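From: lab user (bench 3)
To: helpdesk
Subject: output format question, protein + adenosine-5'-triphosphate

Hello, I'm new to running complex predictions and I'm not sure whether the block I got back is the full result or only part of it. Here's what I submitted:
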Amino acid sequence: PSRSDAVEVRDLVVRYGAATALDSVSLRVAPGEMVALVGPNGAGKSTLVNTLTGILTPASGSVVVRARIAQVPEGRQMFGDLTVDDNLRLGAWQLRGRGKSRRKQRDTSWVYELLPDLVRVRDRKAGGLSGGQQQMVAVGRALMSRPEVLVIDELSLGLAPLIVADLAEHLTELNREQGTAVVLIEQNARLALDLCSRAYVLEAGRIAAEGDSADLAASPDIARAYLGEA
Ligand code: ATP
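Helpdesk reply: Thanks, we reran it on our side. This is the complete output you should expect:
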C-alpha cells in the first residue's frame, strides 16, 4: 500500500448481526487503475463496495478514500418515472468540494459526450428503456459527480454480451481519457479479468487470491473455479 493510493482498505471486518460478511479484507486501488473484484454469489462483493462508499459501517478495520468516489449500484436503481436527463441530474447531488459551481454540478453535457447513445433517449422515461440503456444511465448518473474512482456493482448482470462489450468499451475510454479509476464487481470473471489490469478474488468473505489479471487468469485454480475451464 502506498500513501498515494486512491482507496486503501485494511483488515476490514463487516458483520450483519452475528454473521460475518467480510473477514479481514485488505485491498487498494491506485489512481487511474482498473481493478476487478470477482467471486461467487454471497462472497461479500456488494458488502465490500457498500463499505467503500460509506453505505455500511465496518465492525473493525479501516477504509481510507483519498479521491472522489461514486457508485453504480447493483440493479441500477433508476427513477423509472423520471426522464434520462433528470436521472442524470440527480447524480449531481453526490458532488461535493473542490469548488465546483452549481451550474457545473448540473452540467450533463460531458456525460452525453462520453455516452452519446444517451442523447437520443434523454427525454424518455428511464423505466421504459432496455436493461443496457438503463445501465448506461446508471453509469452516467454516477459520472455526474466527476468521480476519480467509479465503483460498479455488477456491470453485466442480465445484459446481452454485445451490450456488455459496448459498456466495457465506454469504461475503458473513460479510464484512458479521464484517468478515472474503476472498481468492477463482476460475477463474469472472464469479463472482469479482460477489462481490468489487477483483480481480487473474494470467497466467503475473504480475499482468496489477488494479483495481475493475466496471472490470475493463467492460474489453473482460478480458471477452473471462475472461467469455466477444465
Ligand atoms: P451477490 O453477488 O449475490 O450480491 P456478494 O458477493 O455481493 O453476492 P454480499 O451481498 O456482499 O455478497 O453478501 C455477503 C454475505 O452477507 C452473504 O452471506 C449474504 O447472505 C450476507 N448478507 C448480505 N446482506 C445482508 C443483510 N442485509 N443482512 C444479513 N446478511 C446479509
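A quick orientation on your result: The longest strand covers residues 19-29. Let us know if anything else is unclear.
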